[in-house]
Specification:
Layout (H helix, E strand, L loop, with lengths): L1 H14 L5 H7 L1 E6 L5 E7 L6 E4 L6 H10 L5 E5 L11 E3 L31 E4 L4 H14 L2 E5 L10 E8 L2 E5 L6 H10 L4 E4 L13 E7 L11 E4 L13 E5 L1 H4 L8 H7 L12 E4 L6 E8 L2 E5 L6 H10 L5 E5 L11 E3 L31 E4 L10 E4 L6 E8 L2 E5 L6 H11 L3 E4 L14 E7 L11 E4 L15 E5 L5 E3 L1 H6 L2 E6 L4 H5 L13 E6 L2 E5 L15 E3 L4 E3 L5 E6 L5 E8 L7 E2 L19 E5 L7 E3 L6 E9 L14 E8 L4 E8 L4
Parallel strand pairs: 3-5, 9-11, 16-18, 22-24
Antiparallel strand pairs: 1-2, 2-3, 2-6, 4-6, 7-8, 8-9, 8-13, 10-13, 11-12, 14-15, 15-16, 15-19, 17-19, 20-21, 21-22, 21-26, 23-26, 24-25, 27-30, 28-29, 29-37, 30-36, 31-32, 33-34, 33-38, 35-36, 38-39, 39-40
């Protein structure tokens, strides 16, 4: 009873205290009480000193009032409201009634309402509110981060236009204008992030050794607070400034980056003393690389493979961190990690899974220095193989090539810039390897098609200026390949309709031979020539005369060809062009699918191998993959499936008739003419050391030629 008697007295004191309406608004407060989470509850207000709180009556309450209340509480909006003391009856006085808001007010006090504590309500009418859980501050931070992710940064040296730009003033593109970053607070970790984002493994210096040119009135950002592990400067805390006058140092942020092994040259490296004090230089690489990227769409991208115990293996993507990715990318000569690709999405590897549970701190020189699980002792599968995309330096090659007259963005004629002139490429000799360099240079992934003539596209007046194009496939641009330029008075003998074209794609197959199945399936067989009629028709026998006993010596083996790419392997011939083989009673969809050869140590052929003509089908598929292709229907090899030709099938051999005992090399090349596009041609050929003593045969040290 004492507390009830005291309430009217307190109301008189609180509400009748002299003061302006503005003063009361300044002291007006709101809160939610009784909810399961902070964003919901009974709505209560305090007017005056904050010593007394009270409830709000639900008379005339609408969603607009709820929105105003929630915004005043710091939430972005109201979800709903509840009549009838939904979160319990209040015990304090009822302070507000008759609230009417338009919805755009900044406070409930700004809405129409009765005089404080004037009402005809009971606590059974206490209003309750449920606000959206996102706060206004959280939305502001989210919008700020989203806006900052739209920022583009660059390293700009106005007096050096050569690529890649590895030293100069750091600039940011904001609101379609390039602006200068103020040097206030700029330190080594900020510079390290700037270099990493530009595709360089580390920073050499963040202080210019000489006066640099910059636009003083364009200062827009200062006081970056980077840890050194961020992918972009936009991820760091930073202060935006509204006027260049707020740049206290009046200097521009500057970096000099270590260009890394990918660029090869490194003119920025200063004296040893300066390097030791300002940068972590990568450890010199051994003769054999210990890490590589396979089947990537561009430089600095691909499935991660590491070399351990004389064998290449993969890395499990489970729990792989950004810090680990940064170490890995920088070890290969690139910048920070741009993207982590999980679950074998860059094609599944083969062999052991060497690394798993990798947790780098970020300052290691090699991923081998990082804590990780014991080699090849994880429960990971190749479906969890790690892929990565690193920030790679801009080499300035994209501006030297174009696709024109195409049917879509990834298709068309190829024109390239040579000695200041644009010209088309003669299609004679143009192939998928050349096209793969062009697609990568264009930033469009892999080459799916390389037509030598583009007469089917609309006509063009662009002349043919480049002939005899010959790429190895590893070049950074077509300009790095061998070719002949016909620019001045040279006479071009290429017919005008033979202008090279290409079609690029994001996904392709990748076929390679299973070495374990090959080595375990080798055996010798003497077989009567009279029973090899079909084999003779298909040229599976050598030209060596048959001995008097009329037996041929055959080296038989099983060929298990797997597709570890990101798309199905399909024959390049249309089904109407397939060949029917009556002996074997199926269609051959590829005239040449594999080469089988035996050579001496110098590469001289000692046994006449042959070009194996196959039908293509899914003989076995990994868990999760489904069979789709068969010899008697649509032919091909599905992703993560095997085409298996057993060693008891006709022509699945090399004819050793007439070959003497000795040590040789067994060579098998899949898709040898590269007629079908793949993500990786370097693993198509295998070599085995072969010991043959005229009675038995053994193969060991089988390897892919790109692993040597």
């Amino acid at each position: 009873m004492a507390r009830i008697a005291l309430i009217p007295f307190l109301l008189v004191i609180v509400l009748c205290t002299p003061g302006s309406e503005a003063g009361k608004k300044q002291k007006f407060q709101t809160r939610l009480v009784g909810g399961a989470v902070p964003s919901e509850g009974r709505l209560e207000v305090s007017i005056g000193s904050g010593s007394l709180w009270g409830t709000v009556c639900d008379d005339g309450f609408t969603i607009n009032v709820a929105h105003v209340a929630c915004r005043e509480l710091g939430y972005i909006r109201a979800e709903t409201y509840f009549f009838g003391a939904h979160f319990g009856r209040g015990t304090d006085p009822i302070l507000l009634d008759g609230l009417m808001c338009r919805g755009n007010e900044s406070s409930l006090w700004d809405c129409e309402h009765n005089e404080p504590a004037v009402h005809d309500c009971t606590h059974d009418e206490d209003i309750a509110v449920q606000c959206h859980t996102t706060t206004i501050r959280e939305r502001e931070i989210s919008e700020m981060k989203k806006r900052r992710l739209g920022w583009t940064f660059r390293i700009n040296d106005r007096f050096d236009h050569s690529y890649p730009h590895s030293k100069g003033v750091v600039e940011v593109r904001m609101d379609d204008k390039w602006r200068t970053i103020c040097a206030d607070g700029w330190d080594l970790e900020d510079a390290r992030v700037a270099c990493g984002a530009a595709g360089f493994p580390d920073v050499i210096s963040f202080m210019p050794s000489e006066k640099i040119f910059h636009r003083r009135k364009s200062f827009s950002l200062r006081n970056f607070e980077c840890t050194g592990q961020e992918t972009w400067l936009a991820e760091c805390d930073v202060q935006e400034i509204s006027s260049y006058k707020k740049c206290e140092s009046e200097r521009a942020a500057y970096v000099m980056c270590n260009r890394g092994t990918f660029v090869i040259d490194n003119p920025n490296l200063p004296s040893e003393d300066l390097t030791r004090s300002t940068a972590r230089r990568p450890r010199p690489s051994p003769d054999h690389p210990r890490i590589r990227l396979k089947a990537g769409k561009g430089f600095g991208a691909g499935r991660v493979e590491v070399f351990h115990m004389r064998q290449w293996g993969t890395v499990c993507s489970k729990d792989f961190t950004r810090e680990s990715g940064n170490v890995l990318c920088k070890e290969m000569g690139f910048g920070t990690m741009k993207e982590l690709v999980n679950n074998g999405s860059m094609g599944q590897g083969i062999g052991p899974i060497w690394f798993w549970n990798v947790h780098c701190r970020g300052n290691e020189q090699t991923i081998f220095d990082c804590p990780h699980g014991r080699f090849n002792r994880s429960d990971c599968l190749h479906s969890m193989d790690l892929g990565i995309v690193c920030n790679a330096p801009d080499l300035g090659v994209r501006e030297k090539i174009e696709l024109v007259d195409g049917r879509f963005d990834e298709d068309g004629r190829v024109i390239m810039l040579v000695d200041g002139h644009w010209g088309a490429i003669c299609g004679e000799g143009w192939d998928l390897v050349d096209a793969s360099v062009a697609c990568r240079q264009l930033g469009l992934g892999f080459a799916m098609n390389a037509p030598v003539s583009t007469h089917f596209l609309r006509s063009t007046t662009i002349p043919i200026m480049i002939t005899e194009m010959e790429c190895e496939g590893t070049e950074k641009s077509l300009q790095d390949c061998k070719y002949k330029a016909m620019i001045r008075n040279d006479t071009c003998t290429c017919e005008t309709e033979f202008k090279a074209g290409l079609t690029c794609t994001d996904a392709l197959p990748d076929v390679l031979l299973d070495l374990r199945i090959l080595t375990s399936s080798l055996w010798l067989q003497d077989y009567p020539e009279a029973a090899l009629t079909c084999a003779q028709e298909e040229n599976c026998l050598s030209s060596v005369p048959t001995p008097s006993h009329r037996m041929r010596r055959l080296l038989r083996f099983t060929s298990a060809i797997m597709n570890r790419g990101t798309a199905a392997f399909k024959p390049f011939l249309a089904q109407g062009d397939w060949q029917w083989h009556a002996c074997h009673m199926h269609w051959h969809s590829m005239d040449v699918f594999s080469h089988y050869d035996i050579t001496d140590r110098d590469g001289n052929r000692v046994a006449e191998g042959h070009k194996a003509s196959f039908c293509l089908e899914d003989g076995h598929c990994d868990s999760g993959a489904k069979k789709h292709f068969s010899c008697n229907g649509e032919q091909g090899i599905s992703q993560n499936c095997f085409d298996i030709y057993r060693n008891d099938i006709d022509c699945q051999w090399i004819d050793l008739t007439g070959v003497g005992a000795g040590r040789y090399l067994l060579r098998i090349d899949v898709n040898p003419d590269q007629m079908v596009a793949e993500t990786d041609y370097s693993n198509n050929e295998i070599i085995c050391d072969l010991f043959y003593n005229s009675h038995t045969v053994h193969a060991n040290n089988c390897r892919y030629t790109n692993d040597e």
